[in-house]
Amino acid sequence: MRICLLMLGKTRRPELRTVIEDYVKRLSHHAPTEILEVRNAAAALKKLDADRAAATVLLDAEGKHLGSSAFAKWLGAHRDRGLRELIFLCGDAEGFPEELRQRAREKVSLSAMTFSHELARVMLAEQLYRAFAILSGSPYPK
């Protein structure tokens, strides 16, 4: 299963970009992973239109609240069903336009708390890595 982190706008803070890239590099040992930063919703929709077979997950405060183990189980279930690609939509400071909200099959919340969009990206990358570590029995999540 491939993973795509489809991000509206750029991660501007270099220290956060470095952390995201580190987790994506680690994650790539478990699943091919790419970061795709797009300028706006139209560009994001173009990517989604090009890959209709992928499952799209929107990061949203109103989404499913999953702990790390439950998130790993959820991710593993998608992988085990033979899903080809999982696209995580990460918003910018303005959130998401309605047309992107409508395209998402699922919504997942990273926390009941509110975080900056750049910090949420770091948290997503870490939780994806943690989920695969849990699924593989790695000592990382302990």
**Head-to-tail CA distance between termini:** 25 Å
Strand content: 15-25%
The major pleated sheet works out as: 5 strands, parallel
Radius of gyration: 14 Å
> What's the architecture in CATH terms?
3-Layer(aba) Sandwich
Query: How many separate helices?
Result: 5
Would you give an account of this structure?
With 142 residues, the protein is α/β, with parallel strands linked by helices. The protein has one domain (2-136): Alpha/beta knot (3-Layer(aba) Sandwich). It contains five helices and five strands, in the order βαβαβαβαβα. It has a five-stranded parallel beta sheet with strand order 2-1-4-3-5.
Which SSEs are present, and which pair or pack?
Blueprint: E1 2-8, H1 14-27, E2 33-38, H2 41-50, E3 55-65, H3 68-80, E4 85-90, H4 98-103, E5 106-109, H5 117-136
Parallel strand pairs: 1-2, 1-4, 3-4, 3-5
Helix pairs in contact: 1-5, 3-5
